[in-house]
């Protein structure tokens, strides 16, 4: 139960208790005492959850993450950090965050004095991830950071080092690695259901609309986004190829095309096609684009069967199809809550002092590979990694 729900329940129960006591006198008030105890217990339970400070109240934070804390067993919203006090106050009222736990980017570092905050969750444009991760670690907080981890491998290294020095966990929010259809696909491949894995195709694309959607404005600015479609959504193709094979690529090739007459692509790339060669011989052929209608899919081909996830990395409504020489079938899997699973994983790692499944090193690997892919596209030659 999140703070809002527990507060609502508290008010509901407090209201009922008071009304009943007025009607029935002091004896009834005593008889109702266990209700209050239950409420206190629930409030205590909520307080015992790991407290998260959400930094950046943009589209993803407000539309996906804040609403999903109510589905968490171990994580709760403890504080909000925003450059817009009105927005922060409105969301604080909605999610039961105390006014004293609202912060700006200027007083961000005073989070160190707030014992209710265990984890700082960074949902800012990638160009700001390194700065806020380092500052959060220096404030003595664990860090959950959105993907892509940062603009460069050097920034990723600084983030890892700052958290290591502070003795704090660092997790990168690769939500697909907490999503049941993706976990099921990995399990089937590991069990050999497709036979020997031979190749993977993965595609991610959408229309980026910086003039229509404020959340897309930073996506076409190199300084804030680090790059274009590859950094933002091609990273899902790349990360999927790695978690489906369970291997690290040894060589990449790439080709890029961006129409420089389109103002969206003056600083960042549009279409990029890249291949990854894995040690077992698996070849992955991946794409991303900022100028096509939405696609978020992959297919893994084994020597006995193929597995298709389309969409593979959406927020919901995933669909898996497995095909072989006897035909196609659609396993009936249950949609899960990847957002709550991801937040709860971070909370449990903090409680148990364990390294997260997707630590800073996982984010760094992708950023290093992305740099190699850009290099291969620039040089028109394979790059060993
Ligand atoms: P957004 O623009 O809606 O949110 C970014 C927030 O950062 C805004 O509230 C903005 O005000 C704030 N901000 C603070 N300083 C800023 C500055 N100097 N310039 C620009 N913005 C500044 O973007 P978003 O789509 O919510 O993305 C935020 C992060 O979340 C990115 O890292 C993105 O890759 C990630 N994201 C992840 C997923 C996912 O599925 N895991 C989905 C969408 C976005």
Detailed description of the structure:
This protein has 385 residues and is an alpha/beta fold. 42% of the residues lie in helices and 22% in strands. The chain contains 13 helices and 15 strands. The protein has a 9-stranded mixed β-sheet. Helix 1 packs antiparallel against helix 3, helix 6 (129-138) runs parallel beside helix 7 and helix 7 runs antiparallel to helix 13. It is globular. Bound molecules: nicotinamide-adenine-dinucleotide (NAD). Nicotinamide-adenine-dinucleotide binds next to helix 4.
Q: How many DSSP H or I helices?
A: 13
Q: Got a strand count?
A: 15
Give the overall average pLDDT: 91
CATH architecture of the largest domain: 3-Layer(aba) Sandwich
CATH class of the largest domain: Alpha Beta
GO molecular function: nucleotide binding; oxidoreductase activity
Keywords: Oxidoreductase, Signal
Domain Gfo/Idh/MocA-like oxidoreductase C-terminal: 188-385
Protein name: Glucose-fructose oxidoreductase
Give the topology, please.
Elements: H1 3-24, H2 26-31, H3 33-48, E1 50-55, H4 59-68, E2 75-81, H5 85-95, E3 102-103, E4 119-122, H6 129-138, E5 142-145, H7 153-166, E6 170-172, H8 180-191, E7 197-207, H9 214-217, H10 222-225, H11 229-245, E8 251-257, E9 271-277, E10 283-289, E11 291-302, E12 306-309, E13 320-324, E14 327-329, H12 338-352, H13 360-379, E15 383-384
Parallel strand pairs: 1-2, 1-4, 2-3, 4-5, 5-6, 7-10
Antiparallel strand pairs: 7-11, 8-9, 8-15, 9-10, 11-12, 12-13, 13-14
The structure holds nicotinamide-adenine-dinucleotide.
Features:
385 residues, alpha/beta, Rossmann fold, Dihydrodipicolinate Reductase, domain 2, 2 domains, 9-stranded mixed beta sheet, 6-stranded parallel beta sheet, disordered N terminus, binds nicotinamide-adenine-dinucleotide, Gfo/Idh/MocA-like_OxRdtase_C, NAD(P)-bd_dom_sf, oxidoreductase activity
